[in-house]
Amino acid sequence: MIGAEVLRAEWTKFSSIRATMVLSAAAVAVSAAFGFLFSNAAARQYATATPQERLDFAPLDMGMRGLFVLQLLISALGVLIASSEYGSGTMRASVAAVGRRGRLVAAKAGMTALTALPVSVAGVWLVYVTSQTTLASGGAPYVMPGDPAALRLLLLGPLVFTLLALFGLALGLLLRGTAAAVNVSTAFLLVPILSTASPDPIRGFVATYWPNMGAFKAVSGTSELPAWAGPGILVGFVTVMLIAAYVQFKKRDA
């Protein structure tokens, strides 16, 4: 059992660090901003598109491109929950107060999930509302909330982002530094975009099996794998990362 008192202590540490609160607010604000920017550009393209381009227009995909930016901020939030204690030198005190290191890691994972989930819900829903409203006002096709694709995104999308925050937490525990962990998480999450210039076999593998890309494709309904496989790959990957973080955290000095 984690214990309510340990979670309260983690919340106190989280809320007292300005960077974590600012990053949470920034993730929500950036979601709305990019939802508008990408969909506004898409609406302008639609106005001058050819008949075939209009048939191929995917309003949900066009508007949700901002989620690729949101994932970087959510992952960085998970990093900060772990790395901020190394930066401030309070990790030893936390270990001494909790007693069991596994309990502390579990508390940090719980705090990460409880923090990232509402931020992710707000971010995903804001991207959706902003993007589809902007497309509609620009005269382009848009997707209503009752559409199955929209429901899948709104309900499952926040869970994917919460898993990415736990990925960031694991990196923060493994690397014990904010800059290093954020750089690694950013590079890892952007591999699907960077791989578009790679040979076909590599590009195809990354587009299908890379943890964050596989989950995003499953949420968008464009995955070539079974519906459970994309999220399953991400869950398995994050689980392995958290186990590795726990093992290393248990063996070395705090």
Summarize this entry quickly:
This protein is mostly helical and 254 residues long. It has helices at 4-16, 18-47, 51-55, 59-63, 67-88, 91-98, 101-137, 148-175, 178-194, 200-209, 211-220, 229-251.
Give the CA-based shape.
elongated
Q: In which range does the helix fraction lie?
A: over 70%
Question: Strand pairing plus helix content: what structural class?
Answer: mainly alpha
* Total domain units: 1
Q: Helix count? A: 12
Using only CA atoms, what is the Rg?
19 Å
* Low-pLDDT segments: none
Record field, number of beta strands: 0
Residue share in β-strands: under 5%
- Give the ordered list of helices and strands: HHHHHHHHHHHH
Mean pLDDT: 88
Major sheet: size, sense and barrel closure?
A: none
Q: What separation lies between the terminal Cα atoms?
A: 22 Å
Describe the structure.
The chain is mostly helical and 254 residues long. The chain has one domain. It is built from 12 helices and no strands. Helix 1 packs across helix 7 and helix 5 runs antiparallel to helix 7. The chain is elongated, with a radius of gyration of 19 Å. The chain starts with a helix and ends with a helix. The mean pLDDT is 88.
Descriptive labels:
254 residues; mainly alpha; 12 helices; 82% helix; 0% strand
Layout of secondary structure:
Elements: H1 4-16, H2 18-47, H3 51-55, H4 59-63, H5 67-88, H6 91-98, H7 101-137, H8 148-175, H9 178-194, H10 200-209, H11 211-220, H12 229-251
Helix pairs in contact: 1-7, 2-5, 2-7, 5-7, 5-8, 5-9, 7-8, 8-9, 8-11, 8-12, 10-11, 11-12
